[in-house]
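Today's session is about reading a structure prediction critically. Students often jump straight to the picture, but the first step is always the sequence itself: look for stretches that repeat, for charged clusters, for runs of hydrophobic residues. Only then move on to the predicted structure, which in these notes is written as discrete structure tokens rather than atom positions. Here is the chain we will use throughout the hour.
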Amino acid sequence: MIEILKASAGSGKTFNLARAYIRLALSGKDPFSYRHILAVTFTNKATDEMKRRILKELYVLAVTPEKSPYYKDFVPSMFPSAEALQARSDSQLSGILHDYSAFAVSTIDRFFQRALKAFAREIGQFASYQVELDKESLVDESVDRILDELTEADRNLLDWLADSVRDDLQKGQRFDLESRLREIALSLRSGDHDEAVARYGIDEKTVFSRKNLSEVRQCCRRVTESFEEKVRDAAGAVLDVLRDHRVAAEDSNRGFLKALYAYREPDPRAAVKPPTDSFLTKAADSSKWFAKSKDRFRLELEGSLEGPLDAFCALFDLPYKEYRTALLVRDQVYGLGIAGELRRAFTDIQKEKNVISIDDSNTILKDIIDGCDAPFVYEKLGVRYEDFLLDEFQDTSGVQWENFRPLLENSVSGGFGNLVVGDVKQSIYRWRGSDWKLLDSRLQDNFGPGVGSVRVLDGNYRTLPGIVDFNNRFFTFAAGELDRLLGEDPEAGDSISAIYRDVRQKPCIEDTRPGSVDVVFCSDQLDETVASIREVIDAGGTYGDIAVLVRGNAEGSLVAGRLVAEGIPVISDDSL
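Below is the predicted structure for this chain, in token form.
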């Protein structure tokens, strides 16, 4: 069975994870129960925190069980007395401390690396291979190797690269083949590329052959050139109507029709940009073509201008989407045309150096165990896990999930306990391919009856009531506003309101102070920051109580510089 725990910030997630681990460790009669539990987190810090919490609470249960916050969870439901709980806790704690390497609380990357090490032979590496964290250095080396080894014999590849450079120059870009290749190589090494190839069953050798890609490129060129010609003609048709009626585009409401000059004689090196929303709004309503003082021009043009103007605006609906799609595809074509060479060079370098890029680990492991049953994986790992605790599940990628699925399926079929913890609202690893929909719906879709209860931790043990109340109201309001601006149905499953449906929390902190939130709109943020800090200090606070959060490093440097100038002590990345 899989229990899903949706835990917002400050809701006691680590407390519940530690309790789940300890319950699993204490529930069986096996003296080595801890060896069959795997707890997975996303960061080393979270791993350390969970290990410390588990060991601390086991120690309390082994020494003075009545003082443990978990005591009532285990007595009398699991153990008839405090003495029985104490004996079992002491046994498990002693086992973990004397067999610490089997205490399986790990980051998800570390677990997959351990699994991959067991398959070193299958992936064609020596067992002593190293994990390369700096993927970009391998990419740079693979690009250098391709350029260094180019000869006249590689006429097909040389012509392809020459066409790429020529196309860039025609678009007004500077000649920089090496940087262009590096950019392409990095995109090909992304998890998104590999996942898309796997998901749609793409045969890269056939689909991405330079012959096929040349045809795609020509098709894209026809689409873009045809659209650009239609835009020129349509803009010219509108301006011709104005000229025939001796009306200047400059006379239009705030001169909005002047924009048509740029469309009639565009920069051949630049992509066509859509008209502004203001242009489209005015073009659709003849009463907005001219100011009231020039209404005579509207009377002159009505009946003649609507058709050409509507035809021009219509080009920026579906035809413009097709145009932008063709531009995007055209930009990818050259990269896909040398994907094979870049991939081979990258693979050769990894084998020569006996290294594997950390970003490739998940995909390689998926290819190995895809379709295999869990016992095969356990046999290679040399250990059998029965119970799984998966933390920060909202940041799990599709590939990582496919690697875990066989293990969880085996656990569920065996009737063991599993806990999945996460918070869709805190999904921050999308740049690494994380898929928040796994937690939101796909996990339940995949396992169906295998998923037990779904609990939402709605308490907040970290924040004062006034701040919790502000967050409850602000994020509910903000989610609704974003849905309104984006034209989404708030009741739809993938709307922002749906994602934030469990945002409301109850304050559980034992503190009589209400807390406060001040929202200030100001012209000088530095002055306001200094004033706010002074206010805290005057109220009896200390500098150590204050944190200043900024948008980026540039803003952080400005704030730090100003605070130092005001005599306020600062600890920042720069000062450290």
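Discussion point for the tutorial: The chain has a mean pLDDT of 86.
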